Amino acid sequence: MLSRRRMLATGAGVAAGIAGAAVLTGCSDGGKKTGTAAGATGGEGGGGGGGAQPAKLTITPAADSKDVAPSSPVTVAIENGTLESVTVAAGGKALDGTLAEDKHNWQSTGVLAYGQTYTVTVTGVDAAGAAVNQTATFTTLKPTGTVSITFQANPMLALKNGGTYGVGQPVIVFFNKAVTNKDAVEQAMQVTTSPAVEGKWHWVSGQSAHWRPEKYWTPGTTVKVSANLLGVDIGKGVYGGGNASASFTIGKSRIAIADSNTKQMECFIDGQMVRRIPCSMGKGGKGTIGSKGEKIDYLTASGVHVLMTKEPLVTMSSASYGVTNKSDPNYYEEKIRLACRISLSGEYVHLADWNIPKHGKENTSHGCINVAPDHAKWFYDNFDVGDVVEVRNTPKQLQLTDGLGDWNVPYAQW
């Protein structure tokens, strides 16, 4: 007996730019933003040292700027002088930054927070050695909310950073809130590969963006995804909560092709067929469940499936799709071993020793791909997450959102 488990996948442009620079000359004068350098004698071009040019400070973002994006860098530059210290702080927390060796420039290395008023405090000296002191403030934007992301291997499994996946593994970024400003979000997300390969983003839902190349990955490819969403308006005043990145490597090419006509599953590793497995697939037929008369079928969907999870033991029950009457011929509840899930609706490649006489001869399952114990163990040991299981010659097509139906969408439409 096998299941058709119904599951629901859980499932989200760039904000205000850098404000203009504030140009400040001289030292502080009771907290004012401009003044003359300490020790200056006054007069045109005045400054200490008999005619030396006064120091000039440039602070970015400009003093009193509002709605500054957290992704904006904070910079301080001085002409005709040198910087001694720069502090940028809000709420008792200072922003990290670096002072150049020549002490003419300072730039932040830390990240600004949303909805904060920052005070920039600068000390230095002019060309004559007179003190230069200055303060200025600016305020960062305050969003109505923020969004966080998860890098996924599939809707049931988070991506393991640094992990190895099969040639069918798409890049998946899942948002905990719906994204409406998709163009800006796509511009903030980047996929880099070695060797280089072109690909596209596709929104599988309002919360899930997938990226894939035109064809299956080349084994050995390294993939890095960066989501630089801090300060990006994802829509309706909601902004990216931060930046994140992850990487993974593509392993061997492992592709299984299960043909409903021949009742055989041919397994290829790096292009070579290494095993032919007799199998039994979905028997077909339709049923009606629930008070609303919802239709259900017992077919294995044709198309490219991507292996999602592997479970040594899983309980499969017809109750998962509404058949609870024990007198119904399609009722079952069984513990199934060596189960490799290939769709959200409950299709697996799994051990089915009770059905061996039908393997290679007749399709009798409720939608899964039944195989004998030795073949089930081999498949479980050799195939893994991201590997491809392609089903052919059934009257039903795998949907995009039923697991990872990405490769069934023509690339021109992706």
UniProtKB/TrEMBL annotation:
Cellular-component GO terms for this entry: extracellular region
CDD domains found in the cross-reference section: LDT_IgD_like_2, YkuD_like
GO molecular function, one term: peptidoglycan L,D-transpeptidase activity
InterPro entries: Big_10, LD-transpeptidase, LD_TPept_cat_dom, TAT_signal, Transpep_catalytic_dom
Residues in L,D-TPase catalytic domain copies: 254-392
Protein name: L,D-transpeptidase family protein
Location of the active site: H350 (proton donor/acceptor), C368 (nucleophile)
Keyword terms: Acyltransferase, Cell shape, Cell wall biogenesis/degradation, Peptidoglycan synthesis, Signal, Transferase
Leader sequence segment: 1-21
One GO process term, biological-process aspect: regulation of cell shape
Pathway(s) where this gene product acts: Cell wall biogenesis; peptidoglycan biosynthesis
